[in-house]
């Protein structure tokens, strides 16, 4: 029985494959009622971290998911977890209605009416064989099946891969409006960071198996500042040690960590960096003099 306010608690998580260290003693926690974005380049360790949480691999350190040690208690833990991977693994020989009937029989928390309701927004007919569906339809069916599970933790690994932008927007809107609650949490990884920024409550950047950033979106908005620096203030802005600087269309843009708002406004036009801009600033460190001129 879970007593902590955190659905997931990770401490000192390390993982090695052969001689390659994939995760380096990372710590993080996912509280109840949060939408947590896990962002990183390919090979950063995201999938390994997710597989650890799902009990799919052993590890070093401490991991608790819904009060369970995931690798030893996976069967019990997965009753309250739903998982969508970037590849829809569905039994292609079944018809759609047979898959739904199967889910009713095998998963105690599967809600048939919710799955049918989600499929109303698609062109998928219940009588067709799954093997005849297009890649986009397969992804839609997979989403409908998993989203119909009444889970306390929903893990999404590139959930909308292969879907057009219209369905992606519908999916993310429904995720917020119909699925989220104060007792549920969502962990999502995607390369389409701009599309999920509006729904995130927390953000973690993972680089080379290390946590580069772990903070709420509220704290990130207070901590990081982007400035369109006035030409006469470039030298003064450099003196404030920006974490990232670039020049676009003749304009100097810098991102600062912890710079006082009043000091930032004295340098130029101030805004909050987008998640993708912040990702570049923290994950693609460049010399602050590169591309910057007075």
Number of helices: 11
Radius of gyration, Cα only, in angstroms?
22 Å
Order of strands, main sheet, comes to: 5-6-7-3-8-9
The fold-level CATH name of the largest domain is: Rossmann fold
CATH architectural arrangement of the largest domain: 3-Layer(aba) Sandwich
Percentage of residues in helical conformation: 25-40%
Annotation, overall tally of beta strands: 13
- The gross shape turns out to be globular
Overview of the structural elements:
This protein has 294 residues and is of the alpha/beta class. The chain folds into 2 domains: 6-208, Rossmann fold; 220-283, Alpha-Beta Plaits. It is built from 11 helices and 13 strands. The chain has a 6-stranded mixed beta sheet, sandwiched between helices. Strand 8 and strand 9 (210-216) form a beta hairpin. Helix 4 (112-119) packs antiparallel against helix 5 (135-147). The longest helix is centred in the middle third of the chain and has 15 residues, at 165-179. 37% of the residues are buried. The model is unreliable at 286-294 (pLDDT under 50).
Key structural traits:
alpha/beta; 2 domains; 4-stranded antiparallel β-sheet; 29% strand; Rossmann fold; Alpha-Beta Plaits; 6-stranded mixed β-sheet; 13 strands
Task: Compile the SSE list and pairings.
Elements: E1 6-17, E2 20-31, E3 35-39, H1 46-53, E4 60-65, H2 74-77, E5 81-84, H3 96-106, H4 112-119, H5 135-147, E6 153-157, H6 165-179, E7 185-189, H7 193-196, E8 202-207, E9 210-216, H8 217-223, E10 224-229, H9 234-239, E11 244-248, E12 251-257, H10 261-265, E13 268-271, H11 275-283
Parallel strand pairs: 3-7, 3-8, 5-6, 6-7
Antiparallel strand pairs: 1-2, 1-4, 8-9, 10-12, 10-13, 11-12
Helix pairs in contact: 4-5
């Amino acid at each position: 029985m879970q007593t902590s306010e955190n659905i997931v608690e990770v401490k000192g998580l390390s993982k090695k494959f052969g001689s390659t260290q994939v995760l380096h003693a990372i710590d993080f926690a996912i509280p109840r009622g949060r939408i947590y974005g896990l962002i990183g380049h390919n090979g950063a360790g995201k999938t390994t971290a997710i597989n650890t949480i799902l009990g799919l691999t052993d590890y070093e350190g401490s991991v608790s998911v819904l009060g369970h040690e995931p690798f030893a208690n996976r069967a019990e833990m997965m009753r309250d977890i739903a998982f969508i991977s970037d590849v829809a693994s569905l039994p292609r020989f079944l018809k759609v209605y047979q898959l739904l009937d199967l889910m009713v029989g095998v998963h105690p928390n599967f809600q048939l009416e919710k799955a049918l309701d989600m499929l109303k927004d698609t062109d998928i007919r219940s009588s067709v064989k799954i093997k005849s569906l297009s890649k986009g339809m397969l992804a839609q069916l997979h989403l409908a099946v998993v989203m119909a599970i009444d889970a306390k933790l929903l893990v999404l690994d590139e959930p909308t891969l292969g879907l057009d932008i219209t369905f992606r927007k519908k999916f993310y809107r429904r995720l917020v409006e119909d699925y989220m609650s104060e007792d549920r949490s969502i962990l999502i990884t995607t390369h389409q960071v701009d599309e999920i920024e509006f729904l995130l409550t927390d953000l973690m950047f993972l680089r080379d198996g290390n946590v580069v950033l772990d903070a709420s979106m509220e704290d990130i908005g207070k901590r990081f500042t982007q400035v369109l620096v006035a030409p006469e203030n470039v030298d003064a802005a450099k003196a404030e040690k920006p974490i990232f600087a670039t020049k676009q269309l003749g304009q100097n843009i810098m991102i600062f960590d912890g710079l006082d708002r009043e000091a930032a406004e004295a340098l130029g036009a101030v805004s909050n960096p987008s998640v993708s801009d912040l990702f570049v600033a923290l994950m693609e460190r460049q010399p602050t003099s590169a591309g910057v001129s007075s």
